[in-house]
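Box 4.2: Ligand-aware structure prediction
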Amino acid sequence: MNKSSGRAVPLLILLLIGVIAMFTPISTAHEPITTKVMFNREVIRILQRNCLECHSPGRIKADIPLTSYREARPWAKAIKEEVLERRMMPFQAVRGYGRFSHSYAISQRDQELLISWIEGGAPKGEESDYPREEIRALARGGVWPAGEPDQVLEAPAVNVTADAGMVTRCEVLPVGNQEERWIEGLDLLPGNGAIVDGANYFIAPSGTRSPCSLPESRLNPLGSWSPATVAARYPEGYARRLPANARIVLKLRYRGNGEAASDRSRLGLHFASTKTSRSVETVSITAPPATIPAAAASHRIVATKTITEDREALAIRPLPYPYATSVEVSLSRPDGSGEVLVLTRGYRFPWQPAYYFKSPVEMPRGSVITITAYIDNSESNPTLGEGPIRQMRFTAPLCELTMAVAVTR
Ligand code: HEC
């Protein structure tokens, strides 16, 4: 009796182990490690360079933080997909068109290392390699990426309710300058990066009572901000004129994130430290009115602008029109030379940064800028929403061009 029960116990245990094994999902921890790429050593650096400005606490993708092994490991497969399909980072300039100082695309090498880490079993690596202080500092935020500005303009506080979708605010910020000033750079620092989705800033025309009620075409564009974009900084000797008693119109876009939150964003101005030899301005180029038939999946729109004085292009920003599937901006000079300035594809988000050229692009008098956009007005366009597809009247700015002209004094 005793003997037989003595044998039954190990059998029961064996059976139990078998049952547990059957119902336990295949554990990733036991995947063989076939890579030398470690999360705490290489991968966290790649995420820091490309992803964490959105995917960390207090930022716009705080719901998918990727700041530690524990947070990022469950997303490994999704990361591979997003990166291979080039949906992340979510900016759309196609590599190989335009030469920029910052391309907003993950580099080939970073992409390869990420894939190697994921396919090789996604190992964690040594605790001591993890850059704890830097990641903490990033989460704290509040640091001007291009350095402390000379003057900071603070917007009034804005409260956003938990269930708010997109909310926009327009504020007029007086600079208080008695004389004209020249600025060589500007940047926005969100007070609450978890809800600030983007911003545009303009100089108000002098004498208007309420610049916020003017159409944007009457305002003088100064710049824009979206998550993870770099601050506007012009080359030495290049600056933008700020008239005396300037007023800046700041348009902020918020996105409710499930909790009531408030924001106080700040705009920072860097005044020119050297004598200005080139004056910078931004113009927007608008498409002529067009009718786009219902269900047209690939309707072409072309806008052109002739340069009437010798200029240099400093930056280009294709505008995030939601129905556009691609926008190409090209330059042709009177001597027959030319180049594509930028090509963007896929507009998943209204985050379209200005792309700064590596060095100013010559645009002699008589050069022609051509913008070709393809618009999808068909059922296959997810941004059109529910309901029947209708014919569409289209007239909208397609891109902003920041250019410089020699100062004559
Ligand atoms: C400018 C902000 C921003 C940056 C930078 C960014 N992301 Fe994202 N990410 C988003 C947003 C917004 C979404 C939500 C996607 C959607 O709504 O379609 C997202 C979604 C994701 C998802 C989830 C996709 C899913 O399956 O739901 C992953 C994974 C991801 N990002 C990885 C990355 C990686 C890796 C990087 C860096 C190479 C990166 N992201 C850089 C904003 C960003």
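In the box above, the bound molecule is heme C. The pocket of heme C is lined by residues 50-51, 53-55, 60-61, 64, 75, 78-79, 82-83, 88-90, 106, 227-228, 351 (CB under 6 Å).
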